[in-house]
């Protein structure tokens, strides 16, 4: 069953056409990956789904409802959570306070259970619970950013480059958690990654974005085996 459908979506920044008519489908319970070079429009796609910037054409349908005109706080209320590139945690607040903020939209009765779940997922956050988030390492901040999104009990999790700038061991942990969230909680995930190898291995389906257009799509493992994809995105991967 389709959870999210983009049809002919165009997004401009002034004269720059970042998305030029994109069709993407995310089904309930899937991990879908978007890969593509720098500037292909991947981040713009995630941000457009969330409502900032707005698409100039096309339709975005989520749970059967057209959401083109909804601002980010409304799409968040519908259960769409984004973990943006660069994480954007609140550096002066503690780990715990960041998690509390993430839970603002969720039913307070789930708070303790969800907190325990996140701290189990990333035990290092338990040790860092009362530390200011700005003092965490890059990997810990990414774990916190993902946990903060989870505290809102999203039905669609959008992850923008979660492995960016992290050490290989941490990257592994992040990807394991993504797979686990999907397997054990049935979480639907749209994942943008430069790290095409890990992301395609994990994905049920994937899209390749190039200059604002989808140029290829298929099963994650199918694209992983595709010679064109390998040559363009997996050199040294
Ligand atoms: P990256 O991996 O570098 O983040 P990306 O695939 O996510 O790349 P986008 O960041 O979506 O690509 O950028 C798509 C195009 O839109 C690029 O040409 C970029 O320069 C342009 N762009 C992105 N954000 C803005 C902005 N705020 N104002 C103007 N142009 C922008």
TrEMBL record:
SUPFAM superfamilies: P-loop containing nucleoside triphosphate hydrolases
InterPro entries: AAA+_ATPase, ABC_branched_ATPase_LivF/BraG, ABC_transporter-like_ATP-bd, ABC_transporter-like_CS, BCAA_Transport_ATP-bd_LivF, P-loop_NTPase
Keywords: Amino-acid transport, ATP-binding, Nucleotide-binding, Transport
Molecular function as annotated in GO: ATP binding; ATP hydrolysis activity; branched-chain amino acid transmembrane transporter activity
Entry's Gene Ontology BP terms: L-amino acid transport
Residue ranges of domain ABC transporter in the record: 4-236
Similarity comment: Belongs to the ABC transporter superfamily.
Protein name as it appears in the record: ABC transporter ATP-binding protein
């Amino acid at each position: 069953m389709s959870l999210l459908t983009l049809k002919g979506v165009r997004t401009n920044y002034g004269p720059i056409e970042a998305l030029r008519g994109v069709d993407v489908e995310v089904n309930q319970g899937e991990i879908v990956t978007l890969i593509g070079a720098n500037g292909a429009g991947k981040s713009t796609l995630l941000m457009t789904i969330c409502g900032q910037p707005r698409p100039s054409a096309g339709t975005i349908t989520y749970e059967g409802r057209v959401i083109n005109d909804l601002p980010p706080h409304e799409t968040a209320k519908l259960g769409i959570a984004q973990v943006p590139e660069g994480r954007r945690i609140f550096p002066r607040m503690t780990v715990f306070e960041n998690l509390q903020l993430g839970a603002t939209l969720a039913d307070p009765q789930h708070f303790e259970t969800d907190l325990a779940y996140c701290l189990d997922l990333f035990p290092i956050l338990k040790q860092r619970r009362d530390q200011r988030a700005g003092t965490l390492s890059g990997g810990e901040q990414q774990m916190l950013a993902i946990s903060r999104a989870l505290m809102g009990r999203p039905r669609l999790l959008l992850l923008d480059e979660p492995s960016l700038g992290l050490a290989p061991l941490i990257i592994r942990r992040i990807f394991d958690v993504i797979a686990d969230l999907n397997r054990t909680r049935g979480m639907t995930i749209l994942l943008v990654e430069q790290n095409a190898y890990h992301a395609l291995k994990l994905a049920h389906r994937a899209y390749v974005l190039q200059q604002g257009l989808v140029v290829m799509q298929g099963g994650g493992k199918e694209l992983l085996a595709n010679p064109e994809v390998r040559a363009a995105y997996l050199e040294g991967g």
